[in-house]
Amino acid sequence: MKLRRDIFQAISDPTRRAILVLLTSQAMTAGAIAENFDAARPTISKHIQILNECDLVEANQQGREIYYELKIEKMKEIDKWLEQFRKIWENRFDQLDNLLSTLKNKKNEK
């Protein structure tokens, strides 16, 4: 039985999020990715496999090496989902700004 994974399961792990950040600047081999972590290479390879299964990264063979790169379209799915929360927080920050301005004005009036 094949496990069904989604992008939110993939980004729930801090190591996988760190791998995604690494891949924002350039395509990298599994070995190059693993050099950035204290974990064993097979552990990092498993993380890469999960990211690949979720379509967040794409594997491209170049000669003997396999390079992994970020799939921007899937990242946009995450951003779209987060947008609803971003609006809530922006509204709350606006309310806080208004409150702080009011308090500052009251203090200056005294």
Describe this structure in words.
Residues 1-90 form the HTH arsR-type domain. Keywords: DNA-binding. Pfam families: HTH_20 (PF12840). There is one protein chain. With 110 residues, the chain is of the alpha+beta class. The protein is built from five helices and three strands. A three-stranded antiparallel sheet has the order 1-3-2. The longest helix has 38 residues, at 72-109.
What's the CATH architecture of the largest domain?
Orthogonal Bundle
What share of residues are in beta strands? 5-15%
Major β-sheet profile: 3 strands, antiparallel
Distance between the termini: 71 Å
Q: What is the tally of helical segments?
A: 5
CATH class of the largest domain: Mainly Alpha
Which outline best applies?
A: elongated
Percentage of residues in helical conformation: 55-70%
CATH topology of the largest domain: Arc Repressor Mutant, subunit A
**Which spans of ≥5 residues are poorly predicted at pLDDT below 50?**
none
- What is the number of independent domains? 2
Mean pLDDT: 91
One letter per element, helices H and strands E, the order comes to: HHEHHEEH
Q: Strands across the major sheet, in which order?
A: 1-3-2
Radius of gyration: 21 Å
Structural class: alpha+beta
